[in-house]
Specification:
Shape: globular
Distance between the termini: 31 Å
Number of strands: 17
Helix content: 40-55%
């Protein structure tokens, strides 16, 4: 686990080692246990290490393997959970190892299977490999996009890093990065509570490698200079081989896959704890770990002051689980002044602006957890994989079509009504909020409604049997990756903490995609998981209203948080940027809590957070 960065040049010049070092300095919090650099001709790599597997110097990066024409070098961020099994397999094929690290297993896997090495990896990863003798560079990102990889192309070079701000810092150093706002990305940001699907980011000059993608740079790759391969894409259709399965059969299969996922994520040379919110998902992880024989498990929960009539903690539920399984439980209570004080660090930790209230909660939680432990498991992803959100039942009402499939237009309407923060017109709509210049950019590059067009195209892709299946595929491939998953990575790594997400195990997700929608929607959503939970954990944490990681002060803006937003939007930088209509901002500031989005987000926080993020990272 770590932060990685580098530069590849295609114009005959040597890579700028200073720029790579600059990026590495920004990434230092992600890897407090060591740093390394490697540069030769047109390629330079840097790495910041969080030592979790093979704590010795033999596991340090950048890691080299072989000599002369056979030499390989790699930088890697993540964890390969099946690395012990892969190591044995590769050793049987004649490969020799000098470390016990998963990084070296990746290098040997590349030697054995070339670009298909990713098909053998079980885990979360962003990896960049280089063959100095041929100039070939291979980048890969894990199937669910758990580990990030940002890219910037300019002046005959490609730079990459584990965070977007690292690229901004290097671009500021030499003026090579286009930091203007991408108008289509802005449309997505304002429509989907800050989600910007890959490959875009909110900055025009920065892109991100999509999940489940291998990218190869080498001579002959065509006009773009690279070629991509999507190496994993589960089908959201029924498997004929499972046509006779009962509900119990599905529950048993999912339970076994989840047990495997939780067990896989115990691999480490340091202890592994759990972030315990008190909800079904994290409670189920604790229960399954206990049944695996884990004792003295460290668990961590966080709570906040109430605000605007909303409670700020769910300690009553996490206490039940901690008591049931005898965990070493840590309850972290945060008052409102501490929340305001923490916002600066939280915004600084964001690779991209994220408006979800969970982000500051996770930042504060991870700050405390990192004082006790280096690795945790977390329950993110269960709602997107097993249909836990309120917009899935309306999708079940979308009519099917004779011969198979469903009405894509009706599905698009249903999803948009439940999920979109705003439409193109009307009170609070895009035309009301966004300045004329920004709106014209959106229209020129994305058409009349770029976000709806993206949604319709995704829902209409082959491979989803029903509208519910299509919505789950969208949320797993896009919304999950660029909201909860990114949130957990950014805030945990900002404190040198590794977070693992068993609900995003590739085998579990592949199986879940085949589960009939009615079984997922049963029992108020996540029916399959709830049935499994009733076998394992106390029912009090199952038969309860659905909870969210509550941070009331970011829903009901007042006091110090409101002052931060007001100051950011009134600044010279915001006026010069001119993204929003002054009269719209004035209306939002006059009544900051008058109206929430369909997902209960604060509309003022959404625009204020974007400006806070841009200013924090020096984007002009």
């Amino acid at each position: 686990m770590c932060g990685l960065s580098g530069e590849l040049r295609f114009d005959g010049a040597a890579a700028d080692a200073g720029a790579v070092r600059c990026m590495s300095e920004v990434l230092a919090p992600r890897g407090p246990d060591g740093e390394g650099e490697w540069a030769r001709g047109p390629v330079a790599f840097a790495h910041r290490r969080l030592a979790i597997i093979d704590l010795s110097e033999a596991g340090a990066q950048p890691m080299l393997d072989g000599e002369g024409a056979d030499e390989l070098v790699a930088v890697f961020n993540g964890c390969i959970y099946n690395y012990p099994q892969l190591r044995e397999e590769l050793a049987a094929k004649g490969h020799r190892f000098r470390s016990t690290s998963d990084t070296e297993v990746i290098l040997k896997a590349y030697r054995q299977w070339r670009d298909d090495f990713v098909d053998h990896l079980v885990g979360m990863f962003a990896v960049v490999l280089h063959e100095p003798a041929t100039g070939r560079v291979v980048m890969a990102r894990d199937r669910l996009g758990i580990k990030p990889l940002y890219l910037a192309e300019s002046r005959g070079a490609v730079r990459f890093a584990s965070s977007l701000p690292a690229l901004v810092a290097a671009g500021r150093r030499d003026g090579t990065l286009d930091t203007s706002i991408d108008p289509v990305a802005l449309h997505h940001y304002l429509t989907w509570h800050a989600v910007v699907p890959a490959p875009r980011t909110v900055l025009r000059g920065v892109r991100k490698l999509p999940p489940a993608t291998v990218r190869v740079y080498e001579p002959g790759c065509g006009p773009d200079g690279f070629r991509d391969r999507v190496y994993w894409q589960p089908t959201y259709e029924r498997d004929p081989a499972k046509a006779g399965w009962s509900a119990r059969d599905w529950e048993d299969a999912v339970e076994e896959a989840l047990r495997t996922a939780v067990r896989r994520r115990l691999v480490a040379d340091v202890p592994v704890g759990v972030l315990l919110s008190g909800g079904l998902d994290s409670s189920l992880i604790v229960g399954l770990l206990a049944e695996e024989g884990q004792t003295g498990l460290a668990t961590f929960s966080i709570g906040f002051d109430a605000a605007g009539g909303r409670e700020g903690d769910e300690f009553q539920y996490s206490d039940i689980i901690a008591a049931r399984y005898g965990t070493d439980h840590h309850k972290i209570a945060v008052d409102s002044p501490s929340l305001v004080d923490a916002l600066g660090h939280t915004v600084g930790a964001m690779s991209e602006p994220m408006v979800s209230h969970d982000v500051v909660a996770f930042d504060l939680l991870c700050q405390q957890v990192a004082k006790e432990i280096r690795v945790v498991q977390s329950g993110q992803g269960a709602d997107e994989v097993f249909a836990g959100y309120h917009w899935y039942p309306p999708m079940a009402q979308v009519p099917g079509r004779p011969g198979g499939g469903f009405d894509v237009d009706a599905a698009t309407d249903a999803y948009a009504r439940a999920f979109f923060d705003r439409g193109p017109e009307g009170p609070g709509g895009m035309a009301w909020l966004v300045s004329d210049g920004a709106l014209q950019g959106m229209l020129a590059e994305g058409g009349p409604d770029a976000s709806r067009a993206f949604l319709a195209a995704h829902l209409g892709r082959p491979g989803a049997a029903t509208a519910v299946d299509a919505a789950l595929r969208l949320d797993t491939e896009v919304m999950l990756v660029d909201d909860p998953v990114k949130r957990v990575d950014n805030t945990s790594m900002a404190w040198g903490l590794e977070a693992r997400v068993p609900f995003l195990d590739q085998d579990l997700v592949t199986l879940a995609a085949q589960v009939p929608p009615e079984l997922k929607l049963a029992d108020g959503g996540k029916g399959v998981l709830k049935a499994i939970g009733r076998r394992t954990i106390p029912t009090e944490v199952i038969d309860r209203p659905k909870g969210y990681f509550p941070v009331p002060a970011l829903t009901h803006l007042e006091g110090g948080v409101l002052d931060l937003v007001r100051d950011a939007l009134a600044s010279d930088a915001a006026r010069d940027r001119g993204l929003f209509r002054p009269e719209a901002l004035a209306e939002l500031l006059d009544a900051p809590n008058a109206e929430l989005t369909p997902l209960k987000g604060n509309r003022l926080w959404q625009v204020g957070l974007l400006e806070l993020w841009l200013q924090t990272h020096g984007v002009r």
